Structure formats: C-alpha cells, structure tokens
Amino acid sequence: MPRPYTGNGFRARDTIMQAVEVTAPHQLHLTEKPVPDVGANQVRLRVYWAGVCGTDYSLIGGKLAFARYPIVPGHEFSGRISALGAGAPFTVGQPVTINPILSCRQCAACQRGEIHHCEQTAVLGVAGVPGGFADEVVVPADAVRVLPDELPLDAAALTEPVAVVVRVLHSAGVKSGDRVAVLGGGNIGLLVVQAALAAGASVAVTDPISSRMQVARQLGADGLDTMNAGQFDAVIDGVGTPETLALAVRLARRGGSIAVYGVPSQEQAVLPMLDMFRKDLRVAFSRLYPADFTEAIDLLCSGRLNWQAVVTHRVGLADLPAAVRQVMADPSSGIKILVRVAHEAG
User: Beta strand 179-183 with 144-146: parallel, antiparallel or unpaired?
Assistant: First the structure.
C-alpha cells in the first residue's frame, strides 16, 4: 500500500500510488501503480477531486469503439502541482485543473485555439493516456489551467463539464429573454439549465427519470410539455438520437436554433430535413470545447451555478467502482459522482 501523505497533501518520496483502472469492459478495479515520472514540458498533479462523466460510463461499459484497455479513466479533475518537468512554467502547490484535450498544438486549428478541431484530437483518460482516477497524474504543461484561490477544488473538478455547457450555449446562441428547451437532465443537462437561466433565459426540460426532473424544477426550470411545438428560440439536445433531434425540430420556432451535444447513437439516421428547411433552423453540433477555459472558470466562481445540486455521490477511490456499478445498474440512483482523492491540509 502507498505510504501516508505528508501534512501538505504531497507525497514524501512515494513510488507507488493507488488508481482505479478499467482492464476490460465492466472490469473496474482499485489497483496500485508506479507514481508516473514527469518529463520535459510536463506537470505532475496530486489529484484532489475527480468527476465521473457519461463518457466514463461508456468506456467502462465497453460502448466506446476507440477505447483501449487497460486505461485509468477520468478527464474531469482538479488538484495541485506536485512536480514540474523542465520548461513547465508553474509552481509546486498551485491549484489547477486540466483541459484534457490532447492535440498536436501546431496545426492551423490548434493555433486558432480550436484544439477540438485538430485531426489528432484525443482526450486524456479516454484513449491511451491515463486519467485522473489516480493519486497522481502526469499531463502536458499546456493542458494545465491555473485556478483562482477562491475556487474550491471540488467545484473546480466540474470545470470541464461547465466548458461543455459554455460552448453549447454559444452554439445555440442563447441570450437573455430566450425560451430554451433542454432535452436530457443528466449532470451536464442540469448545468445547461442553470447556465441558461443565469444568461436570462427561461428554461423547460424533459428527462424520463423523475428524480432528475425534480432537481431541474428546484433549480428553476419548468417541465417540458412536448406539445408546445414551435415555441422555443433554442433547443439543446443532450441525447443525440434521431428521435430527440426530430423532437427538437418540432419544438423550435421558425428561425430558431438547435444545438446537439449528445453523442449521436447512429452514424446514419433519417432526419426531418424538409421541416428544418421550412423553419429556417440553425442546427449546430457542439463537440468538446476550445483551449480557453476562462469563461467556464469564471462561471463557477460567479456563484450563479448551484453545482452541488447535481452531485449525488462523494466517494473515495476505493469506493468508486461500487458507486459506478450502482449508477450504471440504476441510472435513477445518481446524477454526478465526485471522487475525493486527496484532502486539503488543515
């Protein structure tokens, strides 16, 4: 087992750490691994908090075609810098989060800050590169985002999903006074609800799980009456099926917008193209996010997001496999799992 941690939260020359690893579909285990070495232009982080994402469930369930096992998942996390490689412009102990998109950083898309459009895009903790469900993780220095001291590290672990939210709202063109329909009330959908309300929109949401609808209403959203066709300025689809896109087309007003962030379930689907044309709709697919996390961090710092409302589980690494299995077996049993890996001093 790893040695105890020192009082400031960093390791005292440990060489072994704990991690949760997926060795094959549905095979999720707590294990021990060597503490990773840090190279030039890299940073090693002591992970404090990590979030479980829908992509993690797909990875664990064997539903990602590009998954490579074994893999330590986790691409939503925060922590403090524990070691620096040559050329890394940071300080040990700084609070940070990570933009987990790995890209070439050299192509035209990367130079524009559109790392999500790079032909070599990959996501840390999803394919090939170990993620944040571990005591420590090594990341490229250019993935590091320094956090303001006033942002708690548990809140900071939600920076990545909030970045998804920020981009989808921009993609949909949501503004004050808009009527917004949100299809899907999972953890990102509930953050979409809050961010749209914070932007001055009114929001209606639908989800088949009643507990999620209860949280949405507590946050200030209405239940969506799907008979209200043509009444919404923007429809945000977090499911990504042909059925939900067809519903989005029905709900959107003429000249309205649709933004889809849910990963499509089919490569080919029959879409209501004529209805989309007749309504002169703007349809955008919102995949990932650019390099800049500033707006997401600012939104978390603003206090306008009740991010705690979406967190249903707080567990340690040792209890993570059981919590994941519970939510996978019964999606109504949880919304967002946060993993507490390390504790702040004091």
Answer: unpaired
For residue 215, what pLDDT band results from cuts at 50, 70 and 90? very high
How far is residue 140 from each of residues 44, 137, 143, 234, measured CA to CA in Å?
9, 10, 5, 37
Question: Are 141 and 43 contacting, i.e. CB atoms less than 8 angstroms apart?
Answer: yes
User: Is the CATH number 3.30.2130.10 carried by domain 16-157+306-340?
Assistant: no
The pTM (predicted TM-score) of the whole model is 0.93
Q: Where are the domains of the chain?
A: 16-157+306-340, 165-285
pLDDT tens-digit readout, 281-324: 999 999 999 999 999 999 999 999 999 999 999 999 999 999 99
Give 165-285's CATH code, choosing from 3.40.50.720, 3.40.50.150, 3.40.50.300, 3.50.30.10.
3.40.50.720
Nearest to 54 by CA among 223, 185, 219: 185
